[in-house]
Amino acid sequence: MCGIAGILIKDSTRPGIEMTTGEALTRMLEALEHRGPDSAGFALYEKPLDGAYRLRFLISDGTEKASDVDRIREALAGHGAEIVDEETIGGTYRAVVRYTGDIKEFLFAMEHASRVISFGTSLDIVKDVGTPRDLAARYRIPGFNGTHAIGHTRLATESGVHPETSHPFWATGFADVAVVHNGQITNYWIMRRRLERQGMEFHTINDTELIAVYLAFKMRRGSSLEEALRSSLDELDGNNCYISWDVLLSTDKGLDHVSDVFIFVQDDSELEISEMVQPRKPVSREASSSVQVARRAEDDHSTTLRVPGSAVFRSRGP
């Protein structure tokens, strides 16, 4: 029982929305707080950087904070990464770096310097223990005004309440891929052991991390993100809903389409357009020219919807 939500602004003029992307998503998650009061998180996407990457690390939130940051800086410098911007905030250290070497090797080294929670030219993940409002204040989320974002509010069930077990999770090794999830992966340990035998690493016992590691595993072997998510519907068992940028998974209850601003909220197995935003064009369930059903599997109630040029929506539900 968690809450997941997101916002995708296709039109840079931001029609019909008078708040920042961060403000909108914070308010959406506050409305879902009854589904998960333990922790929260945001995957925030901005215009891609040119020739640079964004990284965010979890660090100690006490006396060891400074030494954690020094260790990360040393690791970055040791691999030839130039820090062009940095910030220590809350229990995290954020760095924007220029790097031209092997990304896989670089990220492996960074993961062993400290816990990397996001990497990409566009993506920045913020997650921590507390309510959405707590995190918004602590990490200045209302100041974010990017193109799109997904968020999560968590009720801990399979693992403890810690920053590292909060959502979103990043698909380690692949830029700009983030996952939030509601539900349970019932074959978690079977799939985890299978992936570990293939050399994949896990840092928590949160079943949502399995989705992120699974996607990274499939993409490392040549699958596209969409192909990886298609196979996840067959290989990851359980009733669940999950969202990833480029591909968004929710239930088969239906999807409304808004031409310029998408607001989606998952609550009680429904994916709904939020009424917080008044779009320039009316919401329509009949926008068949813009939303096409790409797959329908009646036996497992899975649904795939494609919105050209923006996202793919998928689902598995009861």
How would you characterize this protein structure?
45% of the residues are buried. The chain has helices spanning 21-31, 65-78, 103-111, 132-139, 188-197, 207-220, 225-235, and strands spanning 3-9, 39-45, 53-58, 82-89, 92-98, 115-120, 123-129, 148-154, 169-170, 178-183, 240-244, 247-249, 261-267, 270-272, 292-297, 302-307, 311-316. β11 and β12 form a beta hairpin. By secondary structure, the protein is of the alpha+beta class. The longest helix is centred in the first third of the chain and has 14 residues, at 65-78. α5 packs parallel to α6 (207-220) and α6 packs across α7. Its EC number is 2.6.1.16. One of its GO terms (molecular function) is glutamine-fructose-6-phosphate transaminase (isomerizing) activity. Residues 278-318 are annotated as: Disordered.
List the helices and strands and how they pair.
Blueprint: E1 3-9, H1 21-31, E2 39-45, E3 53-58, H2 65-78, E4 82-89, E5 92-98, H3 103-111, E6 115-120, E7 123-129, H4 132-139, E8 148-154, E9 169-170, E10 178-183, H5 188-197, H6 207-220, H7 225-235, E11 240-244, E12 247-249, E13 261-267, E14 270-272, E15 292-297, E16 302-307, E17 311-316
Parallel strand pairs: 12-17
Antiparallel strand pairs: 1-8, 1-13, 2-7, 2-8, 3-5, 3-6, 4-5, 9-10, 10-11, 11-12, 13-14, 15-16, 16-17
Helix pairs in contact: 5-6, 6-7
